[in-house]
Amino acid sequence: MCGIFGYVGHRDALKILMDGLKRLEYRGYDSSGVVVQNGHGLVAAKRRGRLDALEAEVRSRPFGGHTGLGHTRWATHGGVSDANAHPHFSCDGKIAVVHNGIIENFAELRKDLERRHRFLSGTDTEVIPHLVEELYEQAEGDILFAVTLAVGRLRGSWAMGVLHADHPNRLSVARVNCPLVLGLGDGENFLASDIPSLLPYTRRVIPLDENELSTIGPEGIQIFDRHLTAKARAPLDIDWTAEAAGKNGHPHFMAQEIDAQPRTVAAEVEAWGRSVPDLRLARDVDRVMVIACGTAWHAGLVAKAALEEMVRIPVEVGLASELRYGDHPFGPRTLAFAISQSGETADTLASVRMARESGSPILALTNVKGCTLAREADHVLYMRAGPETGVAATKSYTSQLVNILFLALHLGRERGTLSPERFEALTREAGFLGTHIGRILRQDPLVRQCARTFQEGYGFMFMGRRYNLATAYEGALKMKEITYLPSEGYGAGEMKHGPLSLVDERMVCVAITPRGRVKEKMISNIQEVRSRGGRIVSVATEGDHAVAEVSDHVFEIPSCEEMFSPILAVIPLQLLAYHRAVGLGRDVDRPRNLAKSVTVE
Ligand code: F6R
Predict the structure, then answer these.
(1) Residue numbers annotated as active site
(2) pLDDT at 476
(3) Which of 49, 52, 467, 489 has a 20 to 30 Å separation from 430 between CA atoms?
(4) What DSSP designation does 208 have?
(5) What are the residue ranges spanned by the domains of the chain?
(6) Is 14 helix (H, G, I), strand (E, B) or coil?
């Protein structure tokens, strides 16, 4: 949450900062700001609201200068206002700071600093420039040393960039518990909150580790630990392209990312066919504890169904935000399986650290090379979804599911709970998933029409069972996060225990009813909703008349083994949420109050 971009080099810093912020806007869009050292001093602009507001402000104001910092904010402390937008400044106006994270002890620091400094905002961040200003003298004008001293007084989480007017061509950065990536160019260098925002400029990156600091100049980057001892770090070469991070002719990132799924899912399946990752870590454990949030937690529910069916091993699915404050018995015989698209989710990382302290082996499934989760895990499965920019997760979810199902299949075969014949049949069938998704996407006009039918005054509920309980939760999450309409997912068998009272003729019940062990039960649950006047939209296997007969609308998925059905069934639900949101005029890629990467608690 919050995005930071920094540049030192020979080009027009303002242009590059604005371009970088555009790519980071998904991380927060309450306000934005930039600061550039233009040879005479610092020149800055900041505005509440979307980046467009800042763009309009700086369009007619050439800043000059080749070094600068930018920020896009998701408000934590202090309301959404111009004054609370970053950068924040020291009293002498010479030190500018952009920050992602939370300074937990800001109140006590501010109380003390206020005796000597004038605060202009209600943010936690503003203590940083004033602290650095005080410590600058003690650091004898060494700006990185002053930042190190300041960091020593802070509690909480931060990725910060600091620019001093008297140190042109130099950015100082520090990180604790928030992502920060350095990008290496030719005679120019960058810093950013994520890798995709750097892709137009460089694919050579160094993600900073916990407690590291760095000083960035046009000719080089130096990295230090908390005691300012220099550290050698080899850059990573990233194989994502800037095109994969674009809209490619689609009106929204989300539409592009939904459409990419025939390719991304096929790429996942092919990768498992080419080489099987080392699964030693998971071979001898007695139980699995999934650690995840949001959509990744839904993927965890599919992991539970698949691992319990294929590997006959008990699986719990922990909400990381709860897990981290609970007393869950991790231990050497419990595999901690952390699922996170970004690999930076604060609660997931905290739970992973807790699991590690209890001796659990850590297996991570993530989309981002070099992310914090990957660096802290014992073994990493990397997804091949490519950069995902829309705040609503789509292609990363189906990528997670493919990896989870293959993990279950391979572990089942290795542990002898899945016969070689069944393994062969299932992996062969997985080869068709990409093509199947392509076929489902061709129903887009039908889904759009359905979304129009339920345009005004309808509520949505989603129900599913077994493998598709997760699909019900995920369908509901997609719908609520981008349309702002109340929508909930339920286990279909739970309807009688309360949710049925929500049903009337203005309630659309989306029933995920592919062929499989629970289909007949689902049809009974559909009947219960219909007889109370509810409208039924079903996701059913192609040609399944029994489901069609009890539904107002049907989206079809090709016939498949039940374990693969969540990968297919979620596609029409992503489209339904998308079209409903577009119909309502929502900002699909940047839903209100949200940010893609939840790096604060
Ligand atoms: C919903 C969504 C979120 C994320 C959640 C975890 O569409 O994107 O619910 O799934 O914030 O994020 P990661 O997977 O990055 O840990």
Answers:
(1) 2, 596
(2) 98
(3) 489
(4) P
(5) 3-238, 245-431, 440-591
(6) helix
Fold that domain 3-238 belongs to in CATH: Glutamine Phosphoribosylpyrophosphate, subunit 1, domain 1 (3.60.20)
Average pLDDT over the chain reads 95
What is the number of other CB atoms lying within 10 angstroms of the CB of residue 524?
Answer: 11
In angstroms, the CA 192 to CA 207 distance is: 9
Low-confidence ranges of the chain (pLDDT < 50): none
Distances (CA, A) of 122 to 92, 110, 441, 598: 19, 10, 47, 22
pLDDT for position 548: 97
Answer whether CATH 3.40.50.10490 is correct for domain 245-431.
yes
Instruction: Tell me whether the CATH fold assigned to 3-238 matches the one assigned to 440-591.
Output: no
pLDDT value for 601: 74
- The predicted-structure confidence for 486-543, as pLDDT tens digits, reads as follows 999 999 999 989 999 999 999 999 999 999 999 999 999 999 999 999 999 999 999 9
Enumerate residues lining ligand 1, CB below 6 A: 293-296, 340-342, 345, 348, 392-393, 477, 481, 597-598
Domain made up of 440-591: CATH architecture? 3-Layer(aba) Sandwich (3.40)
CA dist 397 and 399 (Å) reads 5
Question: Residue whose CA is closest, atom 3 of ligand 1?
Answer: 294
Closest Cα to residue 181, out of 146, 226, 212?
212
Q: Any idea what DSSP says for residue 177? A: B
Residues in the chain: 601
| C-alpha span between 33 and 185 (Å, rounded) | 24
H/E element, 426? helix 420-430
CA of 293 to the centre of ligand 1 (A): 6
DSSP-based three-state secondary structure for 155: coil
DSSP label at residue 292: E
Atom of ligand 1 nearest to the CA of 394: 7
CB atoms within 10 A of CB 121: 18
Alpha carbon distance 422, 130 (integer Å): 65
Contacts of residue 357, Cβ cutoff 8 Å, sequence gap at least 6: none
Residue whose Cα lies nearest atom 11 of ligand 1: it is 294
Q: How far apart are CA 73 and CA 84, in angstroms?
A: 9
Query: How far apart are the CA of 119 and the centre of ligand 1, in A?
Result: 35
| pLDDT tens-digit map of 64-89 | 999 999 999 988 888 999 999 999 99
Residue-wise burial string across 217-228, b where 16 or more C-beta atoms lie within 10 A, e elsewhere = bbeebebbeeee
Cα 219 to ligand 1 centroid, rounded to whole Å: 37
- The beta strands (E) that lie in 450-492 are given as 459-464, 487-491
d(CA 455, CA 448): 10
Pocket test for ligand 1, best of 252, 295, 337, 366 (most atoms within 8 A of CB): 295
Residue 296 Cα to ligand 1 middle (Å): 6
Minimum-distance ligand 1 atom for the alpha carbon of 342:
15
**Sequence-ordered alpha helix ranges (H) in 60-178:** 106-113, 127-138, 143-151
Indicate the SS3 state at residue 363.
strand
